[in-house]
Write a structure and sequence with these properties.
single chain; 71% helix; 210 residues; globular; Serine Threonine Protein Phosphatase 5, Tetratricopeptide repeat; mainly alpha
Length: 210
């Protein structure tokens, strides 16, 4: 039904140079959690992200990654009970991230991906109720951060999937993906461990467009 973003690419880790012990511990913990995720030890990664988040108390980033691991692991899941556990946990993390960082476009994109996973699992059941929510989240993120490449890419891919479903031309959205790819070269955020995924996905979609 809808073409889904099913994997992350190119996680660029920021080096924390501050000398405080707490910051150094945070950096080490995040590096370890990301390594566990790369090794596909998702449960261990999520548990560590959660411990880091509770220690940090008001940092949205560990909650973001805890949710991301669950969301990405849910795509393709056939067991509804397991899917429900994953996405319910992701929702908890997303709500915590939103509490500490309201109107964060990265978190809004992730929330849209969470709903998209339900649609991918059962479009007949969840398509009508969640499609509008996904579009709303993408549009809100775009309004907040029109120069964020992940925001533009995620919205474009969602719009492409919708266009394909309704038999419409996807070429207008290919231009959005191309713009997103250009933005990856210039977009910067100094927040440690700020999300960086998406460039390789944009390149892949553009190859399909052509």
């Amino acid at each position: 039904m809808i073409r889904i973003l099913i994997y992350l690419t190119s996680l660029l880790l920021f080096v924390v140079t501050a000398g405080q012990a707490q910051e150094s511990k945070y950096e080490a913990g995040m590096q370890k959690a990301l390594q566990l995720w790369q090794e596909q030890k998702n449960t261990e990664a999520v548990n560590l992200f959660e411990r880091i988040a509770k220690a940090e108390k008001e940092n949205w980033v560990p909650y973001y990654y805890g949710a991301m691991v669950n969301v990405m692991g849910s795509f393709g899941e056939k067991d509804e009970a397991k899917l429900t556990l994953q996405l319910n946990k992701a929702k908890e993390f997303i709500e915590e991230a939103k509490l500490f960082s309201p109107n964060n476009p990265e978190v809004l994109v992730l929330e849209a991906m969470m709903h998209t996973s339900w649609i991918a699992f059962d479009g007949a059941t969840y398509g009508m109720t969640l499609s509008g929510k996904v579009s709303e989240l993408h549009q809100k993120a775009l309004n907040l951060a029109p120069e964020n490449p992940r925001v533009l890419l995620a919205k474009a891919e969602w719009d492409m999937g919708s266009a394909r479903y309704w038999g419409k031309d996807i070429s207008p959205y290919c231009a959005d993906v191309e713009k997103a790819l250009q933005l990856f070269a210039t977009f910067k955020n100094e927040t440690p461990f700020y999300p960086t995924w998406g460039k390789e996905r944009a390149e892949e979609i553009l190859r399909l467009c052509k």
